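Case study 2.
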Amino acid sequence: MMSNKERHTGQKIKAHTMANARMSVLVAEVPGVTPIVREAWQDYFTLHFCTSMAEAERLLDSRFDVIVCGTHFAESKMFDLLRLVKSMPDMRDVPFLCVRVLDGELDSTAFQGISIAACALGAAGFVDLNRWRREHGFDQAREKLRDLVSSLAKRHSNNP
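Prediction:
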């Protein structure tokens, strides 16, 4: 039988391990973007990548703390993946962040339209990284996106 002290010590070790465990992130993007994401986030998250709907469907059997999907994923199937994830009982509560990385900055009307559509389908939000780069600079935009993903992941892992 375990003493109260042993039980308390075991709980502290388990809590410490959980706090230091990396959040698991599924990144759905075009092949050209994945090395950039890997380099930027590999020290912060456990990363899983998919570049097609077939790969995404296979990976969705796993547990993730957040899903980040680029607008150009699988020939612009971001909304298709979002609908699929939100239709799956085990995945519907996983935060899904839509991100636009490639090309230039969207104009305000297009940005607003994609944001509204993404949120209406259940996304946690939509980020135009080029807009953030203009507003905050390259490094700050990169850090801001990483912090947002971390925040979404932590919120989900605290409310499974």
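DSSP finds eight helices and five strands in the chain.
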